């Protein structure tokens, strides 16, 4: 399974937020049920793989429609958290398919990206320093204030600095 910090980095790229709480909640069962077994709890979307979705079409129309309904009934923040949860399960499924070398590569890329705030801004439209996110609202691109982004980024960078720098070192040694 992808580590929590990898899920958070993925969400930072996709949403401009890390949604650390979503990922901690989803993986809390892993403390008692290590490995893939923990996915029997809190990974409903993962469990529907091949029944409702596959890796060629991870978010079919039914999933998109459900998110739209959540957005209309509970607001955009709750809908985005639901998307983060589904994205967590898709990333776990992708992780299952990767060999150890590819997992190391992606972890190294994610670790590298955390040290590249200018790349996050240019490539993912997330300014993690100033706490702003480029969004499309009513067809127009706008930069929205997101102070949570800056604080979540700092927490994620501390986590990577404390525990994951070796991944970056190994990937740079292997791939240059």
Question: Any overview of this molecule?
Answer:
- The protein has 176 residues and is mainly alpha-helical.
- It has one domain.
- β2 and β3 form a beta hairpin.
- The longest helix is centred in the middle third of the chain and has 22 residues.
- It starts with a helix and ends with a helix.
Task: Write a concise synopsis of the structure shown.
With 176 residues, this protein is mainly alpha-helical. It has helices spanning 4-15, 20-26, 44-47, 61-74, 76-97, 100-114, 117-124, 147-163, 165-175, and strands spanning 126-127, 132-137, 140-145.
Q: Characterize the main sheet.
A: 3 strands, antiparallel
Uncertain spans: none
The arrangement of helices and strands along the chain is HHHHHHHEEEHH
Structural class: mainly alpha
Strands of the largest sheet, in order across it? Answer: 1-2-3
Total beta strands? 3
Amount of beta strand: 5-15%
Report how far apart the termini are. Answer: 26 Å
Tally the helices.
9
Helicity range of the residues?
Answer: 55-70%
Shape: globular
Number of structural domains: 1
Radius of gyration: 16 Å
Key phrases:
single chain; 176 residues; mainly alpha; three-stranded antiparallel β-sheet; 9 helices
Fold blueprint:
Elements: H1 4-15, H2 20-26, H3 44-47, H4 61-74, H5 76-97, H6 100-114, H7 117-124, E1 126-127, E2 132-137, E3 140-145, H8 147-163, H9 165-175
Antiparallel strand pairs: 1-2, 2-3
């Amino acid at each position: 399974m992808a580590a929590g910090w990898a899920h958070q980095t993925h969400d930072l790229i996709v949403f401009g937020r890390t949604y650390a709480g979503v990922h901690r909640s989803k993986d809390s069962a892993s403390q008692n049920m290590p490995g893939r077994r923990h996915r029997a709890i809190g990974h409903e979307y993962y469990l529907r793989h091949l029944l409702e979705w596959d890796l060629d079409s991870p978010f079919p129309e039914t999933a998109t429609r459900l998110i739209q309904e959540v957005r209309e009934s509970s607001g955009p923040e709750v809908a985005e958290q639901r998307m983060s949860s589904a994205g967590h399960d898709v990333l776990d499924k992708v992780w299952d398919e990767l060999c150890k070398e590819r997992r190391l590569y992606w972890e190294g890329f994610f670790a590298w990206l955390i040290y590249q705030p200018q790349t996050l801004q240019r490539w993912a439209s997330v300014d993690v320093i100033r706490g702003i996110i480029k969004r499309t609202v009513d067809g127009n691109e706008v930069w929205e204030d997101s102070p949570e982004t800056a604080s979540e980024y700092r927490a994620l960078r501390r986590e990577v600095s404390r525990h994951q720098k070796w991944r970056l070192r190994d990937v740079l040694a292997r791939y240059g």
